[in-house]
Amino acid sequence: MNMDTRINSTNALRGQMSPRRKLEIAWGFAFVGPVILGILVFMGFPTLYGFFISTFKWSIIGKNPEFIGLGNYLRLINDPQFLKALKNTTVYVVGILLFSVPLSLLLAALFNRKLPFGEILKITYYLPVITMMVAVSMVWRWVLSTEYGILNYFLGLVGIPNIAWLNDPKWAMPGIIIMSIWKGVGFNMVLFIAGLKNIPAMYYEAAEIDGASSLRQFLRITLPLLSPTTLFIFLTTMMNSFQIFEQAMILFSGATEESTGAGPDNAANTIVLYLYNNAFKWGSAGYAAAQAVILFAILIVITSVQMKLQKRWVHYDA
Amino acid sequence: MNKRLGIASFMVILFVTVSIGVFAAGSEEPAAAGGTVTFMMWGGATEKATVEGYLAPFVEQNPDITVEILTPGNYGDALQTMVAGGTPPDIAYLGFPEFVQYHREGQLTNLQGYADASTVFDANDFSADHLASFSDPGTGDLYSVPKDWSTYVVYYNEDMFKNAGLRTPIELYDRGEWTMDKFLEVAEALTTDEVHGLLFNYGRWKTFIPYFAPDWIQSTAELNVNTPEFISAVNFINDLNVELGVNPTPDQLRDISPADRFSQQKGAMYIIGRWMTMRYLTSDLPFAWNVVPMPEMDGKAHTWVDMVGYAIPLDAKNPDAAWRVIEYLTGTESQSAVAASGHAIPIRQSVANSEIFLGSVREGFNNEAHIAIEDAAPMLVFDNFVKIFYDTMGGQLNLVFTGQKTAEEACAELQETIDDLLKE
Predict the structure, then answer these.
(1) What is the predicted ipTM?
(2) Which domain covers residue B65, as residue numbers?
(3) What total number of domains does chain B contain?
(4) pTM, 2 dp
(5) Which of A148, A168, A257 lies nearest to residue B203, judging by beta carbons?
(6) Which terminal residue of chain A, N or C, has fewer Cβ atoms less than 10 Å from its own Cβ?
(7) Chain B hits for A47, Cβ within 8 Å
């Protein structure tokens, strides 16, 4: 123990700080202060303000907001469109988590080995990620076209009749899920590849010596040691999926003269889309804020539960 | 404990300060006439250049005023946000339904005083219906000046009619034979495996409703859609494809838009507004085409009227100069330029009925078709209009047109939904 540490320890015991320590803390605040201020102003304030306006009946251009307490929240409970949007969003989130995350892992496992043209394939899978969602959605309007769409063309080759992806309420959400998987699978794939690279080779070598099969190695070594990455991907994918907006908005707007993007019979209506329409099209900004608060609460609850449960299945020590 | 109290106090002070800032914004003192006028409009570079062209003489005559044109993407959202933030433009485009929303919220400047004092503005040269659409229904005071308007007409491929040995719609119109029956008859006659006799976007269902149910809007708080008349109108539109096969399916129209189908000669007639004229004119279509008014049924023709106005938001910084710009743009000089360009139907009746407009676009073009229906006026804007009319009705009726519900089922459900939405 050197002299400074001894002095600091003594001061700490007395409940005092040394001038040097105080200076260090002051510099620390000076460095992080602008960031904290930015977070408070641009994230903290809008969040609090969202709570605040959710208690008002207020159109965004209204001059006289009317305080209605929990009125907007009570309205939400009885709003079939909101409940449908909630259900649609849940279906979307589940669909993405069920299909996109395992597919990303599969591709990552594939590309983690040396494959001919592996790098080119990796880039190809990643290209949709860096393409604008607006452009992707426009292209997918054609892919999902009933009569001229390439998806129906391929399905037709195996005898499946044309599906009205964009006009049939049953197929609207599956259409969006397929497009979103195509768009996002490359991002999670790259994260999984990074995770796979961090697993020390010695575990696999030891397992091979013990005669473990590839499947067993995957289940007993890869999956557990990849669990921190899996948790991260699971949480970020879930949070992003709950906020689905532009896919539906662009795919379905223009179907009729309406441009809500909610799809046939509101089959593609999602929470954020409904929120946006309420705030900017239908003059119910307070009601939209209440929806945002509910979405916030849902995300907080699910994330908290996951963070609690992670102790059971996430292994941080390789 | 003190630290926590300090942080909590800081958060509360920050929240209250910014809240006050947001709510208090917009209470700045008005500026004097002259200076910079911010003019917000929709459209891209072409539309902006067109308006700059209309404004060029004004800018030359009024060196004390600088007009700054803004063309934000997502116009509606941008305008709402600017108004909410207390920093609106001095002049904004407003469609007639949006006008009602802004006026109801008290966000527009009363222009009646300006209009009364003006030597340029002449209320008698505007249609009374048009002015009423932008006035307070109680006091009659003007809150926005109509900019221009558009009516739906039937665009037709003249070559197709001639090649099929049929009289063209304009010939039928001149002979007094342009009826709904004749319209459907020629549509059927021109329909082949490759060509549809009619191109009608199902989203524009509103076009045919007045033919069957002219009184479906009883008041701003009462709509009747679950009636035999309204259901007949929906079935009529649906049967254009299902029974007659003259109109493509919604899927087909999504794959290739009706506008493109017409220019690609996949359709003989197309119902749409004035704005399509300039597009087809600049596309230099490789066939002869013209327009004709909507057909008559039971001796009466109906059309849909779109109308846009110039408004000065209440918190505009420079309302006096903004009025001078509006006064000019809606004056006969500027409206004559609008008419000559062929872009829109002039709002000034004297200009709309003059050779400047009637002889615009190209020789022989039937501009008169747009003003042929004398009582054409914008629809009454009822409560919760955008949500009910565009989104709820459009979405529900689309289920009929895609074969997922019958008109009876859809209209019965719609009536319940509409009644609830009217109470919102």
Answers:
(1) 0.78
(2) 35-148+306-366
(3) 2
(4) 0.82
(5) A257
(6) N
(7) none
